[in-house]
Design brief:
The two termini are about 15 Å apart. Strands 4-5-13-8 form a 4-stranded antiparallel β-sheet. The protein has a 4-stranded mixed β-sheet with strand order 11-10-9-12, covered by helices on one side. The radius of gyration is 19 Å and the shape is globular. Helix 4 packs antiparallel against helix 5. The chain is α+β, with helices and mostly antiparallel strands and about 260 residues long.
Length: about 260
């Protein structure tokens, strides 16, 4: 079983933060920059809670009411088959980015509202830099199975919390996603990418706007899922999956989907 290092944050007096790694009992103390809050310091629990909510994928069940729905389109059928397969194989909880990543002044992955999404990088770049982002929390690109589970929970949310009919919730995720993200046929659509932290749906932002780069569970092949700001919501809905043809090619309209351990 893979060993992990537990990290907790202890607040000390005079604006100091101490990170304690329980495995080796080592600690690191640093000063909080003036005007910076704990939720903006990468690695603190406050930061993790703000930018990486828990995705309770393990709560999905084949007995869920929304899965008794009979698909009406080919896209719905494909998604239901993929979700059913994922549930049968076993889904674990994980944390996923709340919004699209952006880049800091040094070109490193970061998360902040109101920034240009991090695009123009290759799938291989995302794989490497996702792992380097927060290795103590096993950061990485999310898998297809995890993204399918994420979207399954989104359908449940739309039904249970936003009063969508079962039919309309399936349609919104699988067939026409213009109301869930930024597409050219969305309300108040822009001519360019929107900034990070736009178009909230529950806990999440930026569900479309950029296509998400993920990775296959079976063979490690890179995939693109979801839609982009300059296409219709019916052309590339949230559940739409395509292949990455060249993992070293810079994708100008796509951004990595990062996950970390719970």
């Amino acid at each position: 079983m893979r060993k992990t290092v537990e990290q907790r944050t202890v607040i000390e007096e005079k604006g100091k933060v101490t990170r304690v790694k329980s495995k080796r009992r080592k600690s690191e103390t640093f000063l909080i920059p003036k005007g910076v809050k704990l939720e903006e310091i990468k690695g603190t629990q406050e930061y993790i809670e703000k930018y990486f909510p828990i995705v309770k994928a393990s709560s999905l069940s084949l007995n869920d009411e929304f899965l008794k729905y009979e698909p009406q389109t080919e896209k719905q059928t494909r998604f239901k088959n993929a979700l059913t397969s994922a549930i049968k194989s076993g889904l674990s909880d994980f944390r996923a980015q709340r919004m699209d990543a952006c880049l800091d002044e040094e070109g490193n992955i970061c998360f902040k509202v109101g920034m240009k999404p991090a695009v123009g990088k290759s799938a291989n770049w995302w794989k490497k830099n996702a792992k380097d982002f927060m290795p103590e929390k096993e950061s990485r690109l999310g898998t297809r199975k995890e993204r399918i589970g994420f979207l399954g929970l989104l359908i449940k949310y739309l039904i249970e919390e936003k009063a969508y009919t079962v039919r309309d919730a399936w349609k919104a995720v699988c067939d026409q996603s213009k109301d869930l993200g930024h597409y050219c046929d969305s309300e108040n659509a822009q001519q360019d990418m929107e900034d990070t932290g736009s178009r909230q749906v529950g806990k999440w932002y930026d569900l479309a706007n950029t296509c998400k780069i993920i990775i296959s569970d079976e063979d490690g092949v890179f995939l693109l899922i979801g839609g982009i700001y300059y296409v219709n919501g019916s052309e590339y809905p949230l559940a739409d999956v395509d292949s990455v043809n060249n993992p070293d090619c810079e994708y100008l309209d796509s951004s990595g989907w990062l996950v970390i351990s719970v």
